[in-house]
Amino acid sequence: MSELPALLALGVAASALVAAVAVLLRTRRPALALGVGLDLLLAAGLLRLSADQTWRQLATAAAVVALRHLIGRGLRAGGTAWRGPRTAAAAHGDRVR
Asked: What's phi and psi for 17, nearest 5 deg?
């Protein structure tokens, strides 16, 4: 693997973790933070693929893309689940005594 793409991929992967944590701390929205982190990890994977074009690397990049799409779709479908636990009474607007 070439040295420059490997270093760039490592830098982008580290940036993904930092950016995801920063978004989580700033917005308090785990779904958004996860999306930012996964997008940057995808970028790191594609940088790695540009240097070492093996079938294994290609399969890894394809798996990351598929995982990103599945997680994104799941987060859009169940976005209310990230708001935290709610009691049955609170979900129906009843008062909890």
From this structure: -65, -45
